Amino acid sequence: MNPQNSDPAYTQPTPSTICARIRSQRKSRHLTLHDIERLSGGHIKAVVMGSYERGTRTISLARTIEIANLFGMPVSELISDNYISTKEQSSELVFDLRKIRSSEEKAGGGDIQSLHRYLKAVAIRRRDWNGEVLSLRNSDLDTLSLLIGKSTDELLRIWIDEKLILKAPSRP
Fold first, then answer.
1. What kind of fold does domain 87-167 have according to CATH?
2. Within the chain, how many helices (H) and strands (E) appear?
3. Domain 15-83: which topology?
4. What are the helix (H) ranges across 44-172?
5. The pTM of the whole model exceeds 0.70
6. pLDDT digits over 114-141, tens only?
7. Are residues 104 and 117 in contact, defined by beta-carbon separation less than 8 angstroms?
8. 133 strand-pairing partners
C-alpha cells in the first residue's frame, strides 16, 4: 500500500490555516502589526508580519516558533489542525433546519444530506421536535468534518455562505 495514496484519518494544516491562526492570535491579544514589531525588538517587522498573515510570504518553522514564543504559547497550537480557541469551544452553532431541508431538496443530496441526517439524529436523541432551528456545540464540527470529509473551516464557510447557520463562532 502506497502511503501517499492512502486516505489518512487526519488532515494536515495548510499554510493558509496557519497564517489565519497567527492573525487570530495577534488580534485576540489586541496587538497591532506595529506592536509585534515593537515587542520583538524590531526582529519581526510589521510589514513582514502582515505578509505572513495574508499568506503572501512564506513563513519558516523558525519564525513560526519565534511568533509562538512572542505570543507565549506552544507552536503546536499554531500549526495543529485541531486548534480551537477557548472562545470557540464555548460557542454554539445554530442551524436553520428549514433552510437545510429546502437546500437538500434543491441539491438532491451530497454534503447537505449528510448534514441534515446528522442534525435529525441529534434532534431525535434530544427529543427536540421544534423542527425550525437546532443548536450544536462548536466541537460537534469535528464530527461533521469527519462525516463529510471537509475541514471545519471549509464547512463553516460553505454553510455560512449558504445561510444554513443562523449563529456561528467568529472565525479568523
1. Arc Repressor Mutant, subunit A (1.10.10)
2. 10, 3
3. 434 Repressor (Amino-terminal Domain) (1.10.260)
4. 46-54, 61-71, 75-79, 86-89, 97-107, 111-126, 140-148, 152-161
5. no
6. 999 999 888 888 877 667 888 888 778 8
7. no
8. 96
